[in-house]
Prior knowledge:
Blueprint: E1 4-10, H1 13-24, E2 31-37, E3 51-57, E4 77-81, E5 84-88, E6 97-100, E7 105-109, E8 112-114, E9 118-120, E10 126-130, E11 132-135, E12 138-143, E13 149-155, E14 157-164, E15 167-170, E16 172-174, E17 177-184, H2 189-198, H3 207-216, E18 222-226, E19 237-240, E20 247-248, E21 263-264, E22 273-278, E23 286-287, E24 293-294, E25 310-312, E26 318-321, E27 326-330, E28 336-340, E29 342-345, E30 356-358, E31 361-364, E32 373-376, E33 380-382, E34 386-387, E35 390-393, E36 397-404, E37 407-410, H4 413-447, H5 455-485, H6 493-507, H7 516-535, E38 544-550, E39 553-556, E40 560-568, E41 571-574, E42 578-585, E43 587-591, E44 595-600, E45 610-614, E46 620-625, E47 629-633, E48 636-640, E49 644-652, E50 655-661, E51 667-671
Parallel strand pairs: 6-16, 29-31, 30-32, 31-33, 32-35, 33-36, 34-36, 35-37, 36-38, 37-39, 38-40, 39-41, 40-42, 41-43, 42-44, 43-45, 44-46, 45-47
Antiparallel strand pairs: 1-3, 2-3, 4-5, 4-15, 6-9, 7-8, 7-10, 11-14, 12-13, 13-18, 14-17, 19-22, 20-21, 22-26, 23-24, 25-26, 27-28, 46-49, 47-48, 49-50, 50-51
Amino acid sequence: MENKEIVIQGRTVEEARLMAAKLLQAEEGQLRIEVLDEGRRGFLGLFGRPATIRAILESKPTRVYRERDIEPDVDGMAEVKSGVLRVYGPRGRGQAAVIIPTPGVILRVNGVAVSGPRRIREQEEVEVEPLEEVHPAGIEVEVSANGFTASVKVTPQVTVRYELVDQKAQNILQLLTRRYEESAKVITVADVEAALRARGVTFGLDREEILRAVTIADGAARVVARGKPVQEGRDGWVEYLFNSEPVEIVYEDDKNVNYWERYIIPSVTEGEVLAVVHPPVPGIPGRKVTGEPVMPAPVREASLRVKDGVVISDDGRRAIAAVAGRPVLEGYRQPYIKIVKLMVHPCDVDIRSGNLSFGGDLLILGSVKEGMRVSAHGNVTVMGNIAGAVIQAGGRVVCRGRLINSRVRAGGLKSFYNRLAPLLDDLGRRLDELIKETTRIHQYTVDRRKIRSSDLDLNRMITLLIERKKKEIIELANKYAAALDETDLPFPPAVREFALGIKNLAVVLGNRESSIKEELESMLKKKEEIDFLLDSIPEQPGDILCSYAQNCVLDAGGSITLTDAGGYYSTLTAGKQVRVRGVFRGGEISALGNVYIDEAGSPGLTGGKVKIRVAEQAVVNIRKVYPETTIQVGGRSCRFDKEESYVKVFLKDDALKIESLEEGNHHRIVTF
């Protein structure tokens, strides 16, 4: 008897093997299995493939019929040839062929659909109908959570067709099919737009991307609509135009580092703008892809908060310094601006701190070390000593310690600025003359059509005029700059930059694209601003007060007072009176007011010569005067050649009078 074999399909190879064993009624070891196709799992029922095996049942030897008159038993057979199922037999007592249906076709026997294995005889009517599955095309629309984008997924129409696979004749036949898929891009742009409208998407459509999605139709998500993002506005804000903390000076080249100048102390002058309020900027509404408007967050106005020394302009948009000093920003959530007229330096002024310069009053809790410079528009107070330093103040200088080998200048700020005023007036007059003369000549030539009216032609004229007056303009600018260099007082930048601008304008000439006339007018405007600044500076008492001075030069617009141990080998110049409590030895005193000294000169030949000069109306009072002391009142002078007590020197009726007490307390009056 021949071997039986069957080709059968299942979801897996194991399932197909079990089905074959059951159909062939075979035990575990009787089947020989050949795997024809391990199969493949599909996705969502699509694109899958069943596992296919061939199972062979080896037959046992059978009895051979020798008698010719007996018909042998022959099992029925079934085959698929050219895509058609054919069934043969059986004969005798043979078994009918078994046909096992498979997905993708419908097996009908005698007009009835068969869903499982079925024995079929040759005389029965057998029909196999291949199936056709159509998976429709799809459009999936997704709108983002924020509503500003919409995307679509377009999938094609997929048609799946099956046909029978040819198989040789066998008693048990598992039908096999071959699967064919066809895709068709049937979705149109109009279909996508309709789907978008159904989801409410009407704004910001990207028709090129819609066409791309339809053309490719690969099921990938594509953004086909974009809304208009909302542009948030900006609240009003305050722009602060100052630094409230000292700014460290950064030097580009280590070779040029000035170790004395380490920090810039922020300071402002009266009338300087400290802060500006900027108005809020409204936002711009956006739109979602559904057309729904999206409003920006509301914006808020900003406001200025000011305290001592600061005022707000009438329009509420600017904070302006009402006094000179150091600007300070205080507070956290709602900061306010104030002017501190007193700056406190908590330690020594030395190479670590650098020189100090401030626009208000300055209090130094330590000492001022050698080589350092301190300047302030207001008063300077030093709680320690001053040694080998330069101190300059627009107001008073007070040293609680000792002054040694230092230069101190106090007051005279108004008079110093008055020295600049004539130079400023001359420079301003030259600028005004240049502008007027150039304008007149230019208009004259244009009216007569001798030149064109252009900035270049006007620049040439101004250049010629400046060349004629270049020497005197530069000379005036140099005098102005030299006057500024005589003092360490912290001038506003505009005061110092004015001279440099004038010199640059006079020196750097030639074919300029910019209008030289406009530059002249700008310089004239700066001159007027400086005039206003100088006129607003108040006169301050420039007194110097210290306990002791040695090898010093003291220059005060007001009075000078040495409160304790007197002064040695120093020069004192005062706009008012000088008072020395203690000894004044080896130096000069010049004053417009009275002079009061406990002891002047030296009792021996120790180089303690003293010279005192006062104005005509002033009086010199000395408790004890030593030889080689010279006193000058107005144009008259006298020199003491012996020690005298309680001396009073003054001018009366154009004669110099000296009152003193001789030995025995006799009063003596000498007239020169």
